[in-house]
Design a protein that fits this description.
With 222 residues, the protein is α/β, with parallel strands linked by helices. It has a single domain, classed as TIM Barrel (Alpha-Beta Barrel), CATH 3.20.20. The protein has nine helices and eight strands. It has an eight-stranded parallel beta sheet. Helix 2 runs parallel beside helix 3. The mean pLDDT is 98. The structure holds D-xylitol-5-phosphate and zinc ion. The site of zinc ion (ZN) has 6 residues, from strand 2.
Length: 222
């Protein structure tokens, strides 16, 4: 499976419906970056916006919670129509968050920052539906890809395959035509892209191009 998950953080917030419809012909994923001004030094959007976009799309709403207290908001995201939430490993209470998210009927994602130690979070990988490896420090779109995360990405791929786990492997931050190939070869299968999609005058074409680049890197790889 290879999918591009366009991040609406890089879209014009006054035209979110249009932005989502523009990419729908090319992908069924939409990545929603939720920031609280505490876990990261930026503020974005929350459950009311998820509820609004839910009414306009059937796409899979993949909500990335860059927030300190996800346990206080999970039910709001479920009610708003989120399909998955990815909380950060760094906030702690991981087992509790996995159970709460699943009990609310959403897919469970666990996000890890670029400096997270693989051995610290490895025990949870097979328990979640998706591991989100951050390839920038979260907070802002348009940052440069941190290539050192390719190593934990490869280790995660190996662990998932060797355990026969179903966990999806997502990468987020600085994904472009220049970086998607190496991420794909390292084992990522869901690629979040903000500026590379919505910074392009033709977002659908940008998604198509990224997907083609991810696939062709795999083919060259053999
Ligand atoms: C960063 C967010 C990312 C970001 C991606 O904190 O989690 O999803 O929007 O944007 P680009 O693709 O521009 O790095
Ligand atoms: Zn994100």
């Amino acid at each position: 499976m290879i999918e591009i998950a366009p991040s609406i953080l890089s879209a014009d917030f006054a035209y979110l419906g249009e932005a989502i419809h523009a990419v729908e012909p090319e992908t069924s994923w939409i990545h929603v970056d939720v920031m609280d001004g505490h876990f990261v030094p930026n503020l974005t959007i929350g459950p009311p916006v998820v509820a609004s976009i839910r009414r306009h799309t059937k796409s899979f709403l993949d909500c990335h919670l860059m927030i300190t207290d996800p346990w206080d908001y999970l039910s709001d995201f479920a009610k708003a129509g989120a399909d998955s939430v990815s909380f950060h490993f760094e906030v702690g209470r991981t087992t509790e968050l996995i159970n709460m998210t699943r009990d609310l009927g959403m897919k469970v994602g666990m996000a890890v920052n670029p400096d997270a130690k693989f051995d610290d979070y490895a025990q949870f990988i097979a328990q979640v539906d998706m591991l989100l490896v951050m390839s920038v420090f979260p907070g802002f779109a348009g940052q440069s890809f941190i290539a050192s995360v390719l190593e934990p990405l490869r280790r995660a791929r190996q662990l998932i395959d060797s355990q026969g786990a179903q966990t999806l492997l997502q990468i987020d931050g600085g994904i472009s035509l220049d970086t998607i190939g190496e991420s794909s070869r390292a084992g990522a299968e869901i690629f979040v892209a903000g500026s590379a999609v919505f910074g392009n005058p033709d977002p659908a074409m940008a998604v198509r191009g990224l997907k083609a680049a991810a696939l062709s890197a795999l083919r060259e790889h053999g």
